[in-house]
Amino acid sequence: SAYSGVMALSRSRPDSVSFGVGVPRLDREARVVTLRYSGHTKVGAYVPCLRPDRPQDISGRRASFERAMAVHLAAEAARQPRLVYIGDLNVSPSVDDVDMHNIVDPSTLRLVQECQVRERELLQTLVSKLGLTDSYRHFHPEPGDDHTWRQRPHGRQGGAASLSPRVPSSQRIDLALVSRSCWATSCDILPWTSSSDHRAVLF
Description:
Layout: E1 16-19, H1 24-27, E2 32-36, E3 41-46, H2 61-79, E4 83-88, E5 98-99, H3 106-130, E6 132-134, H4 135-139, E7 149-150, E8 154-157, E9 160-162, E10 170-171, E11 174-179, E12 188-189, E13 201-202
Parallel strand pairs: 3-4
Antiparallel strand pairs: 1-2, 2-3, 4-11, 5-10, 6-11, 7-10, 8-9, 12-13
Helix pairs in contact: 2-3
């Protein structure tokens, strides 16, 4: 019943499926599903968001999830080196993957930037330890129209819908990270739709 639940659809039946990362207080939110096939393993996740106005979360809920996920992914990689980690990881890999033009208050901008630095440090630690690669950026090295999440305008300001001035207007946070032994042939981002504030990653 949690809003954060993750679902996986598969054309072929996996050998086994498990949910969570083995930490009950984190797994209650149903954020992780792992599908194990004979030739590879896929881990789908919806990583908790780190709010810029609550930077202490980096040593709390978000950090706890990241540590548990790192242990889970390492265990899966030891069993099956061909590993895919995919989902809304709630982190833009670099400054080129985020648009903050709507944040004009200097103190708010500083909080958001500091928050993103912490998020990226966690991601890069995970990627380097497991030898994972950002598949989309591998195939599309030049930043462009590739953000996968955007704010939906809300409220009215001067008669027009406005964006929140406390979070970036758009980011590339839906990622497909793959091990070198499980290389992809392509990775693309599909067009926006009216039904979601995210774009699908075709991997």
